[in-house]
Every structure is written in C-alpha cells, then in structure tokens.
Amino acid sequence: MRAAATFSGAFTALVALPARAIEPVMRGAQKILGIKRMPWVFLFPNLAAVLFFSLLPVFINIFYSATGSDRLYPADRPYVGAANYETLFECGSYLDPSTCSRDLFWRALGNTLIFVPVQVAAMIGIALFTAICLNRDIRGRGFFRGIFFFPVMLSPVVVALTWQWILQRNGALNGLLTALGLTPVNWLVFPNSAFFWSVFVTVWAHMGFFTIILLAGLQSIPRDVYEAAKMDAANPWRVFTRITLPMLKPTLLVVFILCVIRSVQTFDELYVLTGGGPGSATILIVQYIYEIGFAIQPRNFGLAAAASLLLGAVLLVFTLIQLRLARGKSYD
Amino acid sequence: MKLTAILSNTAFGLVMTATAHAQEVTIYCDDIGFGCKTMAPVAERFNEEHPGKTVKLETVSYQTVVEALPVQLESGEGPDAAIITDLGGLSRYYVDLTPYVDAANFEKEFGQTLQWLRGTDGKSKAINGMPTSLTVNGAYVNLTLFEQAGVSVPEEGATWDEWAEAARKVAEATNTEFPMEMDRSGHRFASFAISHGAELVDEEGNPVVDDGLHAAIDTFVEWHKNGTMPLDLWGAVGGSTHRELFEDFLNANVVFYFGGSWTLSRMDTEVGDLFEWAVVDTPCGPSSCTAMPGGGALVGFKHTPHPELVGEYIDYVAQQENYKEIIAAAVEIPAATSLIEEGVDYPTASERTQVALRTFMDQIPKMAPAAYRFQGWRYQRAMMNALTTRISQVINDELTVEAALERIRQDVELAIQAAEAK
C-alpha cells in the first residue's frame, strides 16, 4: 500500500515537471493574448493537425483539379482553369450518359445514386432488426454479437475475395445448388444479380458496426418506459413504433449519416468483386476516380481531383443536413 | 579519455571513408519468371566480383511495379533500377546507360526491343536498359479433349474462325464447359485485333480506330453471345480490371485458352501428365497470324546517384552466360537475338514445356509490324484500357460496336490530350 502511494507520488511529480516547465511560457502567452484568447492556444495543436491533414489536401485537390498533364509536381502542371470540370459536365443530355464526353463518370454517378439509397435502407433495416434481436435475453447473446461484428474486422479485399469464391461460376453457392439438384447461376455475370450481390456483400461486411451502435442506443432506453407500456397492455408493434423508434431517433440519425457517407465511399469490395462490371453495371463514383487517377495510364490526376471534389461537395451537403437535423432537437 | 577520443575519431574516419567509397544500388523486381529469385545468383556473383559495390534486389509485387513505382518515380524517389513492363510509358524516367555498357553488344542483341524503351523519341539512340525476356501471347490447347471428341487439331495457318469451330465441336462432344477463353486484357485482344487488320497506332504515334478493329470486336462479341466464350471474363468484369481464368484450362474446363508464355511454368507443376496439352501456332486473322510481343526490361532511373553501377550491373546481366543462366531458371523466352537463334536449354522444364517454348519462339518472326509498334507506343495502356472497358460494355449491350469504337477513339485522345497539356 505504501509502495503504491510512493509510486503514485513519484508519478505525479514526474507529470508535474513539464507542466511546471511550461508554466512561465503559458503565463507569458496569457499576458500577451489575454485570458479570452487562451483557449486558442490550447486548441492550436489539434487545429494544426486538422489544417495539415484535412484542409491542406482539399486545397491541393483544388489545385490539381485546375491543372493538367500527367505530371505530379505542381510546378510541372500547367493551369487549365475549369477544363476538367467542363470535360466532366460536357453532355448532350444529363439523363443519357451515352451523350456525355465522360460517359463512365455519369454511369458511375447514376449507379451511386441507386446504390446508396438501396444499400442504406437495407443496411439500417437489417442492422436495426439484428440489434433488436441481440437486445433480447436470448441464449448465446455474446456469441451472436461477436459473430455479427466479425466481418467488420475483415479487410475489404478479404471480404470481396471470399464472396467471389462463393459466387463465381464454380463457387460454393453453385456447388450447394447443384448438390440440391437445382440449376447453378452465374451470379456475377448478369447486371441485376451482380448489383444485388454488391449490395448484399457490402451490407454483410459493415452491418455489424451499425448493429453495435444501434444496440448501444437500444440499451440506453430506460427499462421503466417499457414496463409502463407493458402495464398498459401495449402490443409489441405499438411499443416499437411509439417507444423504441422515437427514443432511438438520435442514434438512428447518426447511423443514417455514417451509413450514407460510407455507402457513397464504397470502393474496395466492389472493385475486387466485380471490377465495376458487368459492363459498367456496378461501377461507383469512387472507383471511377481511382481508375482515372491511378489505374489508367497516363494518369489523369486533374480529372480525378475534379471528380473527387464534386463527391466531396455531395458529402458536405449530407453532413450539413445532419447538422441541421441534429440542431434544435431535444430528446429529453 | 584521450585514448577513447582517438579510437572514436579513428572509427568515425573509417566509417566515413568506407561510406564514401561503397556504392549500393537497389533494384525492384517481382518474383515471376525473370525476377529477383532467378536473378539472385547472378547478383551475388556480381557483388563478390566487385568489392565495394553492392546490388540489392528488392522483391516487390507486380502491382507495386505497375501502380506505386510510377508515382515514386514522378516524385523523384524510388529504386535505382527496376524490372518494369510499361516500357514506353515510363521512358521519361530512364537514365541513358550508353557510357557504361557495351553499346554495340546491346544493339546487336536487343536492337528492336531497345526502341520500346525510347518512348516517343524515334531518333533516340539511348540505351536505357535491357529487355529481360520476351513474352508472347499464345494459345494453349487441350489435346486430350480433341482426341476424345475425335476432332482433328487445326494445323498451322488455321484461322481464328476455324479454331472456334473446332473448339465448339470438341466442347459439345466432350461436354466441356466452354470452347474458348481469352484473358481479359487489352494486350491479348490486341493480337486478335491486329490479326484482323487493326493498326491501333500509326507511324506518327496517333491512335487508329479502323475497320480491322471493328471486325475484331464484331467477331469477339459474337463469340460471347453464342457461348463460344464464357461471360465470366470479358462480360462479368468492368473497367480496366485485368482478369485471367487460366485455372479453367488447368482444370480442363475449356478447350482453347488464349493467354501467354509466362504461364508455361505452371503447366508442369499443376497439370503434369493429367492431360495432353500443347501450345499451338497463333491462329490467323484475315490480315496476319500475329501474336503480341511483350515482356519486361531492366532499366535504370534518372535519379540514381550511381548510374555507372546500374550500367555496370545491367551490362553484367546482359553477358551471354549470365543472361542464359537467368533465362533458363525463369523458363522464359530470351530477348537476345543470339539466344533466340541458338536456343536455350531449360533443365528444369519438361520436354512438353520445352516444345511449347519453341512454339512460342516460332511465333516471333510472324509478328506484324503493327504489333511491335503498338508494344512500344507510349499510350499503349490508354488504348488497352479503352479496349477492355468498351468491349465489355458492348458484350453487356450498353454500347453498340460503332459507339464503342467512337468511345475508344475518344478515350485515347482524351488521355493523350490530358497527358500532354501545356
């Protein structure tokens, strides 16, 4: 006990040393800046990190989007103004990608606009259902929570390769169908089934993460509210719609926004699973940006930067909506 | 104290002197064929014979060479040398090694292929490195299935259509899943297209989209529609993604597989005597019986502080006995003229594989000038990416052949325009 106290005292003294050392500096800063500006001094390290790692890349991206050539060094890149944006937007009709100069950009955008709502709805619906099941007093609850979370820990490439082995022509699923006397299907060859499996695989891979958040939300709902409902003989559907859902709203909002952002950013699983095919049926906007900027040679950094800034703008809109919805809400 | 000071000063001086004189260069290579593994004995011998000079081979994945290396080079970083496959596309990063190598020997041995490394500069006489091996696109055929079906194997000079017809008959008679397959690769398709009369690039380095390409796409799409080729490769995959299904040939699921010489080493280890197979002469199109040449090159980069050591090492590798040793271990086709003429013994390869290698080598004189021109073109990859992307769209009814041709032309022109923006 005495040893622990001695250790604790020594540790406190050790930690206090640098604090004492910078105290005169902080006092000096306070004298110069005044006490009201002192919070900025404390915020500075984090602000600097955000500026360096988040804002600086955005400005670099803006620069690249306004320059041409396949050279990397800014000095080697000629200024082209809005040419990259003009190339992206050069279209006969925005509803018909085949009339656009960069038809694959518009196809990717169209696919993303279909993929995101379908995937987000499936993701939230299934994650909510799973969370409600896991919140009940079922046998092996801990085991099932682990099982549902397990895919989240896998690398996206591992997820995609695993599902490719399951879904390919001679894969496990067709093996099972054949064993059952059914006709095998070449799942990834047809646009609709490839799109379905793209949604399925991404939901399978990320659902566990959202399930955990929703489970935490469910567990924060006071039990006495449910007990009161039980005393009033409310049926399960009424309990779900009148108690669970309203009280889960803040968590659902966070899950919704995170889910939308992740969905728009979907890339690795589909790149490995379908490569954007068949044809261009599952090419999403991030794959388009990757291919233009890094896979196709000569690399068109300018066009990729312009497309990624447009994607950033879309994500910014979603974030602002979230802020707007979250503001002024009281959940007490 | 005094003694300590004297000792530490002496040690420091020795280290600094050694550092000043020691030269070390790093070479990136992958582990397939002519790569780090097969080059290692030669590199070790070089290091032993050249005290104070060290060549360090660093094994990296092929993906690193294709995707990460160009970005490193663009930022003036990366290894001193590497084995690369985008010969023309990276030409602006190469160092001229002419003063450090036996230039006359290089011209004699590698003449035609050295031009691929010079990119768009047709007048250049620079020696930027040495081609490591030649790869040749080609067709593998399952002879056992032909025998079981009682169909005779088409002879040299048979056309693509004749091969397709024969493969269809064999597949039908033997209940084989598919008659023909081709890697999803613009390079493989280029063989088919050039044999149908496509030019792909003209003498001035401009992209060409012509009737030959139209005819090739027409036939190719038709083969996907009528089941001659499976949709798994060109149909199911999108974008510029490279995809192979050589496993189908190894598992006797396909009669005829159009791939390349680099997969030969897998035949001995994975097929052995399970079935009879052969590499056959490249099928002919209306224009020629060409395959596409390809292969890697060991090149030095401009930013290296030791170009003389890079040159000295490459010259050492190019010496016939060293080069022969590596090629034999890699079981690949030599790029050096003298070895093509005199032949190479491959002690680790089976008789069947050696026959297959000779068949691949026999295709070299039949290669069309357009094939060589396309291989050395700086924008070859832009064309190959456009071909894979757009042909897959036609197979999936997203584009007509005419629209795809227009897109291919537009894609390549936009790529060139973006790369050459001033």
TrEMBL record, chain B:
Keywords, comma-separated and alphabetical: Periplasm, Signal
Family: Belongs to the bacterial solute-binding protein 1 family.
Leader sequence segment: 1-22
Record lineage: Bacteria, Pseudomonadati, Pseudomonadota, Alphaproteobacteria, Hyphomicrobiales
InterPro entries on file: Bact_solute-bd_prot1 (IPR050490), SBP (IPR006059)
Location in the cell: Periplasm
Name of protein: ABC transporter substrate-binding protein
PANTHER family in the cross-refs: ARABINOSE-BINDING PROTEIN-RELATED, DIACETYLCHITOBIOSE BINDING PROTEIN DASA
Organism this protein belongs to: Chelativorans salis
Organism superkingdom: Bacteria
Major location (coarse): periplasm
